[in-house]
Amino acid sequence: MKEEAPSVLECYISAHEGFYGTIKNSTRDFVEEAEDFIRFIDTKMPNSVYTFRGDDSKEHRTAVHHFLSRQFGKLVETKSFSDQQQKTMAITVRLREKGKPRKRTADDSKGEEVYTAFTLRKENQETLEAISYMAAVLGVLPSDFTYAGIKDKRAVTYQSMVVKKISPQRLREKACEFERRGVVLSSVRSVSEPLHLGRLQGNHFDLVVRDLRPHQGHDTLMELDSLVQEAVEKVKVKGFVNYYGPQRFGTGQSVKSDRVGLALLKVEMVAAVRLFFTPEEGDDPQSVAKRHFLQTGEKFLLTLEALSLMPMSKARERMMLRALHRYGTGPEGCTRAWLSLPHGTRVFYPHAYSSRVWNEAAAHRLATLGHRARQGDLVWKQRGEEGIEAGETSLPQVIHVVAAAEEEEEVYSLGQVVLPMLGNSVKYPENPVGGWYQERLARDGLQSCRFRVTPLKLNLPRCYRPLLAIPHNLTYRLEQDTTRPGDTPSLTLNFDLDSSCYATVCLREVMKCDP
Description:
This is Pseudouridylate synthase PUS7L. With 515 residues, this protein is an alpha+beta fold. It contains 17 helices and 19 strands.
């Protein structure tokens, strides 16, 4: 039996009528164009031109110009022009001419580490799974890959990565092998350093919601358009509750990642391993291997059998099983097994637990204190000047406690309110929400936890997350879907989100239901 989704997303910000719809293979139209564009970038032919499909929305064209400038500004220049044949406007992109590079000398490369950047396209697999597979093929560690965040398993996603110790030529040689496993690389090139998390500016999303059905009434396309316009405009202005999406915890898993994280925070290494190896229902190869381990794992010599059953693509599970076979399945062996994983993988699980508690805290804060900044709330006085998400430094002097007079005068808005992520030396709200945090941690036996797991070299530092998130460059288009039976309406949404914000949560606010 599967667990219910952690931290049920209970609260909305805007008061508007919602609608139902389905996201199913919705990115295909955009994926084809994105792949064409990336191939164009890869050609590196100066003055070559690429033209996007026609787009009548000036607002969306502006958003595309800004996105291309932000992501490829040094490589391309863009302009809009009138397409007379299609009677619409389109965006054309031209590759800039490069200046003559300085000739490198032997001294330039002496002692330099080799770094290769690339764009990863994946579908129906986790980021960590794709990285583990590439690492195994290339003969490097998963920790040799640097990237800025984990993408949704279910979607077709693109993200920048850098791998250490591998040349561009070697990476290209393995590209065909990767493609057979649904991992496609593009924009392969040499760089001088790894990818730093702080450089993540956010993500762009293109979504199509099909089979639109209003929650009530509004049978005609015109009426539905009015409903959708109201929803989009309100979310543009007010934003949405900045919940962590279900993919943070593992969608479709019997045991969610936050439960593994709780066991690690309590230094219950054996329990954490058993939770990690909890199988799903069914007889897929991974579940068969996990089930075999749990049934025979006390006899650690038999972990080799579980390892032989585990698919090669499941690099995390295989690393754990190898360590358990070598060191045993007791507390020390399980600790060694966790240490066999890269640091970024180990810390993911305590972060998942922290994310679950944050979601619950956000729902409690809005349900009990409403939609205004209240006395004792924490506010971010200089939002945007530094990162707020886990893993980045938070300066204590820019976290301010709202005073009674400031609440009365409405000095701060709800959009400036932040809630703490669990971590050492974190400041909690000085109102009932702060007390709620303490009660919640005590319920899980963490009332004295310092959020350092010394045996695993893990540390959750102080950081804060905004209660609300605002989508940028949000545009939409509603049209009859003539490719599907009944000509049901479909909704195309294009928007940008700051790092660690979830498109599914934004869409939930627009639709007033889980997409």
